[in-house]
Specification:
mainly alpha, 2 helices, elongated, 81 residues
Length: 81
């Protein structure tokens, strides 16, 4: 992902885009994967798994929303056309 012209991590919108990108592309999907792994361990142990499924879906929802924010930020970076 390349920033828009004139947009760097030193500028507020560039730093915000980097944060949103990091959360949406790294943190939330890894959290969803860990929740699924914990759910499998819980299932093998014979315990409930619903909380892990809900957590994984919540992490994926956060990832989707942050990807949407990333798209909006990139679209708004070009100015009024």
């Amino acid at each position: 992902m390349s920033p828009c012209r004139g947009q760097t991590g030193a500028q507020p919108e560039g730093a915000f885009l980097n944060l949103v990108n990091w959360i949406g592309n790294v943190i939330a999907p890894v959290g969803a994967g860990l929740a699924i792994a914990a759910g499998l361990v819980s299932y093998i142990a014979g315990r409930g798994v619903m909380r892990y499924i809900v957590t994984a879906l919540g992490c994926l929802a956060v990832s989707g929303v942050t990807r949407l924010l990333e798209f909006w930020i990139q679209q708004g970076g070009g100015g009024v056309s």
